[in-house]
Structures are given as C-alpha cells and as structure tokens.
Amino acid sequence: MKSSYEHIEKSRIALGRVIAPLAFWSHSNLDSVEKIPDELLIEAVLIHGNDALRRRLFNLYKPSKIKNVWKSKLIIQGPRLDFLNRKLAKDFFKIAQPEKYIEKSYQRDNLYARFST
C-alpha cells in the first residue's frame, strides 16, 4: 500500500508535468518537474491552469498555503490579473466581496505604489 506522502508527491509531479508546457516553456534549464518549488507550482497553476487543475491544487496543498501564494504573487500584479483574481476570490476562496478584498490586499502589499509616492 502506498503511503499518503508518495501519493501526494506523485500527484504533484503529474500536475507539474501538465502545467510545465504552459508555464515554464522559457525555462530551458529546468532539469525536472520534480524540482519545481511548491510556491512556483501553485502560482503557475493559478495563472495558467484551468479550473480542474486549480481544484487539484486543493488536494495537494492546504488552502491557506494556496491563498498566501495567491495574495503574494497574483494580487500584487494589479489590473493585469484583475479578472483572474476576482474569479479565484469568488470561486475558490469563497470571498464574499472579492473586489474589496483584492483592492485592500493590493494596496497593502503593492511595494511599487508605496515606494513611488
């Protein structure tokens, strides 16, 4: 019988193989999908994956870890990913007022805006 860790690791590698052609096509020095850091894999799936792939993330990682990556990597990109951020907030993180939540997070975490004034 396979251990839970082995199953999760195989699922993580499979997800990495699916998303790699979409997200890591410019990384010619990427030796193997096994070496993709969790944070980078989560970010890539959130940006480039479809809803089914995003749901697979929640089977592999804690929702809090996914949400932290979303807040630190996607929300700070502002209007560029506005539609995606609203969709993720509403559909995956069940945030009642996605626009307000995103705007507040963006204002708080956007270093460029804080240092450019």
Would you kindly provide a written description of the structure presented here, covering whatever features stand out?
- The chain has 117 residues and is an all-alpha fold.
- It is 70% helix and 0% strand.
- The protein contains seven helices and no strands.
- The chain has helices spanning 4-23, 38-48, 51-60, 63-74, 82-92, 98-109, 111-116.
- Helix 2 (38-48) packs across helix 4 (63-74) and helix 5 crosses helix 6 (98-109).
- It is globular and about 45 Å long.
- The relative contact order is 0.10.
- The model has no long low-confidence stretch (mean pLDDT 86).
Label the structural class. mainly alpha
- Low-confidence runs: none
Percent helix:
over 70%
Q: Ends: how far apart?
A: 59 Å
Over the alpha carbons, how many angstroms does the gyration radius reach?
15 Å
Shape: globular
Mean pLDDT: 86
Number of strands: 0
Element pattern in H and E: HHHHHHH
Summarize the structure.
Helices cover 70% and strands 0% of the residues. The chain has 117 residues and is an all-alpha fold.
Task: Describe the protein's topology.
Layout: H1 4-23, H2 38-48, H3 51-60, H4 63-74, H5 82-92, H6 98-109, H7 111-116
Helix pairs in contact: 1-2, 1-3, 2-4, 5-6
Task: Record keyword descriptors for this entry.
mainly alpha
